Amino acid sequence: MSVAVVVAYGALLTLVAVRARAAREFAEFSLARRALPLALVFGSLAATYVGPVFSIGFVGRGLKSGLLFLGIGLAYAAQNVLVGLFVAPRLRRLRGCHTLGDAIGQKYDQKCQILAGVISVGLCAGFAAVMAKAGGDVLRDIFGLPHWSSVVIVVGVTALYTTFGGLRASVITDAFQFSAFAVLLPITLLWILCFHFDGGAAAFAEQASRATSDGLDSTPLIEIIALLAAFLLGETLIPPYANRALASKTTRVSQNGFILAGCFSVAWFAVMVALGIVARGIIPAATVKEVEAGGKVIDDFVLLILFKSTMPAAGYALLLVVLISIIMSSLDSLLNAGAVAFTQDIVKPFAKLPDRAALNVGRCATIVIALTAAAGAVAVDSIISGLLICYTIWAPAILPALIIGLLVKRPRPLAGILSMGVGSVVAVTLWVMFKFILHWKTEAEISPIIIPALAAALLAYLVGHGLEKTQSGA
Amino acid sequence: MKLLVLVLVTISALFAIAGGIWVAIALVRAISSHRAAPESKSDISRENSSVPD
């Protein structure tokens, strides 16, 4: 029965991917011809941001710190709503724009576009490596395969449909995967609350209150502030989100897609944290000790243990496949966004490519980024710290230049290039110093990097703006 | 108060399920009628020009 469920899910996903068709021109590969309706933009955005951290990670946090991470997650929801209100419509309004690099190129100059392209490709490969590791971890835990072969299977299958179908295949399969997990995981929560959780509302409130107190006691204020900053800024308009803003049918669709995705994230975080809270009353303390005695962090296993101890065999198998889907839906978006950024921002400024050649470059880039991600998955220590590193580089490197560029009338190229250069260099330098000299690894130690790096990028922007204004005035 | 926490969690779960069903319906429409991707370049230009920015 379990095998039949897994095979049926795989067959359905294949059918959906095939129905998405292969892209026949670069506009289809990069922007799905700018024709995505609201429901698909919303579903694809949510499927992209709900990765291993916002599912497995949040359930683990729910167990350990109750509602604390729901509060921190509100910063992420606010970010989506703010982007929807103020940034996405401006981005969508730009003509002939395929990527964030394009937008930066239109606002500043071509050098800024190339630098933004390099940062985008690097970050997409980094994020993809973290997703590849997470996918490999889940597949290894389910089937007992060696980690490297689990990574190859997850990355290989994802790269296959993304290479041929481009953004449209990514969005269509995202919508399928989103529907599966957005329906099944909340139903699982309601099932557990009705049939497995003893004590009703009073016991749930008691567990939530005790876990939240534990979380607040064990988390220093500076870590909470840094996490809020990372959730507010770290994933803002990363290339896959920007591509969805640009591929929306209209500016209104782009705006509402982000706002809805922000609202959905609040409900999603509540469901994930609630799963963690009910797990406190279901998973025996002995099991937690057993996992931790094996040198593993309990956070990453709470959801799997909860599924196993509460669901019938077929339901358990289905939920495991859904977990892999959650990871694949983030991975495919990153592979496509990196490939489009490489073609549009790095190759096209140097070579005039006919449409067919651009499509082929995009497909080859998808494969190369997928291979890089699979190789890089080995180097990722943990999923959360891997993502935090990407956040701490992305926000200072791109956000000041992008957002100020979209908001002000005459942005100066020197300001853009200085902000991106200084933001990247400061973030990478601090990370290298923390990791290799001070040997800091935990999220409490890594997450504060975003604050000085962002400040340096903003300062560099102001200096560049002032210098160029003085020069042009002289 | 205790009941309120559980009610909010249940509403969140139902909201997420509704989102999933809405996207599933849009997905079925998109792959059965190819509405999300017009077939020809003229369709694109017509669509983009008719859409208010």
> Biggest β-sheet of chain A, characterized?
none
Alpha carbon gap, first and last residue of chain B: 46 Å
DSSP E strands of chain A, number: 0
Let me know the CATH homologous superfamily of the largest domain in chain A.
Answer: Sodium/glucose cotransporter
User: Roughly how much helix do the residues of chain B carry, as a percent range?
Assistant: over 70%
CATH topology of the largest domain in chain A: Sodium/glucose cotransporter
Q: Tell me the major beta sheet of chain B.
A: none
Short key terms for the protein model shown above:
heterodimer; A: mainly alpha; Sodium/glucose cotransporter; 20 helices; 83% helix; B: 53 residues; mainly alpha; 2 helices
Descriptive overview:
The complex is a heterodimer of chains A (474) and B (53). Chain A has helices spanning 2-19, 26-31, 38-49, 53-65, 68-93, 100-107, 110-143, 147-195, 200-218, 221-233, 239-247, 251-282, 285-293, 302-310, 313-347, 355-376, 383-407, 413-437, 443-446, 450-473. By secondary structure, chain A is an all-alpha fold. Chain A folds into two domains: 2-376, Sodium/glucose cotransporter (Up-down Bundle), CATH 1.20.1730.10; 381-474, no CATH class. The longest helix of chain A is centred in the middle third of the chain and has 49 residues, at 147-195. Chain B contains two helices and no strands. Chain B has helices at residues 2-33, 41-50. The longest helix of chain B is centred in the first third of the chain and has 32 residues, at 2-33. Chains A and B meet through helix 3, helix 8, helix 9 and helix 12 of A and helix 1 and helix 2 of B.
